[in-house]
Structure formats: C-alpha cells, structure tokens
Design goal:
Oligomer: single chain
Bound molecules: adenosine-5'-diphosphate, magnesium ion
CATH superfamily of the domain at 163-312: ATPase, nucleotide binding domain
Radius of gyration: 20 Å
CATH architecture of the domain at 163-312: 2-Layer Sandwich
Largest sheet: 5 strands, mixed
Length: 331
C-alpha cells in the first residue's frame, strides 16, 4: 500500500520496552516490543515457525536471534537470562550488539518502508541524581539511527512526555512520573514549560535483580512472577512476593526523596501558588495498590508542594509514547 500522507510518530525508547504511538481515527494506536533478545541454536524448523508466527528474529550462521516480546518467554523456557540492548535508561555499554538490536527493534515497531519526511519524536531520560550515565551518547546514536531511516527527528524528556500525554486538562501543569524498567523519570511543568526533571536509578530491573538475589531465582523469572498479578496489598505469603514488596518500597521512596530534594532546592517551585496534579505511569506502576502506597509515602514526606490529586495514567504502559506523539503533532 502506498501512503502519501506523512506519518507522525511518538516513540518511547525505554529500557524495558519500545513503544510507537500513532494517531488512529479518533484516538491513538500503539505498537510495543520488549527491548530484549535471546539467541538460540539454528534449525530450519525453528526458523520456519518463527516466520509463520511473525516473531521478530534474524539468523546469523548457527544461531537465531529472537528479539522483542517473545524473547522473555523463550529465555524462561531455556532457563537463561534475556540480553538487553539498554540498561538504566541508556544503551547498554556491556552489550556488544546493543546498536544492531535496537535498530532491528525500531524497524519492527516503525515498519520497513523508507521514512523520508515523516516525523518522529523520541523520549530520553533525565540525568540521574548523582549518576554519570552517558545520555548524550545514547541520544546521539538513537537520533542517528532514526535519521538514517529518513525521519525528521526530535527528542523529548520522558517525564515531560508523561505530562503531555496525561495533563492536557490542567494545561500541562503538574508532575509526571514514569516508573520504568531501568529508571524512574520525574518532571514538573508549569503551563507546559519544564521547571525541573530528574531520574532515579531504581526501577523494575532493580526490583527484579534485588528480589532474585535474595530468593536465588533468575531475574527474568522474578519479573514474570511480578507481572503475573502481584499486588501491593500488605499480605505476602510467598518469599518472592515479600521480597518484591521490599524493593517496590525502596523504588518509590527513592522517587519521593528525589522529589523532596528537587522541590526544596528549587527556588521556583514554592511560587506555584496552587495545588497541582501528579500522574503516575510506566509498567512498574501497574501492581494493584501502587497508587495508594505512593500517596502514603508522599504524605509522610511533607513536600513543599500540595497535590490536587495523585492518579494513575489512563494507560500507564503507553503514556510516554502518547506524550511524545502529542509533542510531535504540535510541531
Ligand atoms: N503487569 C505488571 N505488573 C508489574 N510490573 C510490570 C507489569 N508489566 C510490566 N511491568 C514492569 O514494568 C517495567 C517496564 O515498564 P516500562 O514502562 O515498559 O519501562 P521502560 O520505560 O523502562 O521501558 C518492567 O520492570 C516490567 O517488569
Ligand atoms: Mg519508559
């Protein structure tokens, strides 16, 4: 099919998942792939099945690399860890195939057709509190890949993307937080203008690896347990759930501490003069009870800002991509 209208895409390049958002009829359409891969021995049968099931993969010699959503389940069946092109919000310096696999994953959510003149806005994490991660390198490499595809490219801070995606009703005034796999990203905007942003290094991966370390499980296995109906209800009969709750609290407390420090260090914030909304998004905000627990920690912290509401994003897994699309459409 030949489409002459130029596509506009919001792209959330997360440590855990890559999500593309597009305008669709009256609403939005999303396409997501797990930002992970696993290599398995080559066999003709396996290759045929993967092709038939439309599982993204490629063959290199005696190996097949499976990337995206199916990689986690295959890794779990084989009792190995998935490999990750990104870690802590940026390209994984310890993964030699990071760029090659990101390029493949991007092709699978963006499509193979040339993109000359199409627009994409992708999200980048905020610098960490006291961390030295190289965001500049990451951002430059992603920009280059997207330019090679033919796109007109711009980037957007991830916390600000949550605000664009969720806080139209308050004219983009408020706090947006994305609880992701690699990082948590936080931003405060006043009438769409970014006032402050930061990231904290404890996200879902931290929860998985910490809970794995104290229970003797593989992190990939812990993640699958966590995603299968784990809830923060205060009652934990299994050790793995108990461990998950401990590290969930640690992740949330780090964000609350970050907010407290950032608000207290900023001379502008107390001048807001009114209550503002706070929106929670990202895959790590999904367990039942998350919002209530977070609100309790906020109340205990006595921040210099008051919130009119603390709520979950309408679709926590897609809020960032949607916000990036809102930014791209506004250009
Ligand atoms: N249903 C779920 N319950 C709990 N955690 C989940 C669920 N779905 C995804 N996650 C976790 O959310 C994190 C990924 O969130 P996401 O917003 O996609 O991250 P990123 O921005 O890093 O790509 C992972 O740690 C994943 O295990
Ligand atoms: Mg994210």
């Amino acid at each position: 099919m030949r489409n002459t209208t130029k596509e506009v895409i919001g792209l959330d390049i997360g440590t855990s998942r890559i999500v593309a958002a597009r305008r669709e009829n009256d609403g939005y359409g999303f396409e997501a792939q797990l930002n992970a891969f696993v290599t398995i021995p080559y066999s003709r049968i396996t290759e045929n099945v993967l092709t038939k099931e439309s599982v993204p993969h490629c063959v290199n010699g005696a190996e097949i690399t499976v990337f995206g959503n199916e990689a986690a389940r295959i890794a779990d069946l084989l009792n190995v860890e998935t490999r990750r092109p990104m870690t802590r919000g940026v390209l994984n310096p310890g993964e030699p195939q990071s760029l090659a696999q990101i390029r493949r994953l991007l092709t699978s959510v963006l499509g193979e057709a040339p993109k000359q003149g199409h627009k994409v806005c992708f999200t980048v994490p905020a610098p960490g509190v006291g961390s030295e991660e190289n965001i500049t390198y990451h951002e430059t490499m992603i920009r280059q890949i997207l330019r090679d595809f033919g796109y007109e490219v711009r980037s957007l801070n991830e916390g600000l993307a949550v605000i664009y995606g969720e806080l139209e009703d308050s004219n983009y005034t408020g706090v947006g937080i994305s609880f992701g796999g690699g990082l948590c990203n936080v931003a405060l905007a006043y009438m769409s203008v970014p006032v402050l942003s930061f990231s904290t290094p404890k996200g879902g991966d931290f929860i998985d690896s910490s809970a794995a370390a104290v229970t003797g499980e593989l992190a990939n296995r812990v993640r699958l347990v966590k995603e299968d109906g784990f809830s923060l209800n205060g009652h934990y009969s299994e050790k793995i759930h108990q461990a998950l709750s401990v590290y969930y609290d640690d992740m949330m407390q780090s964000v609350v501490n970050g907010l407290k420090e950032a608000f207290e260090a900023s001379r502008n914030v107390p001048k807001l003069g009114k209550k503002i909304p706070l929106v929670l998004s990202g895959g790590s905000a999904l367990p039942a009870g998350f919002r209530d627990r977070f609100e309790k920690l906020i109340q205990e912290a006595s921040l210099p800002v008051q919130f009119s509401e603390i709520r979950l994003a309408s679709d926590p897994l897609y809020a960032t991509a949607k916000g990036a699309l809102v930014a791209a459409l506004a250009d």
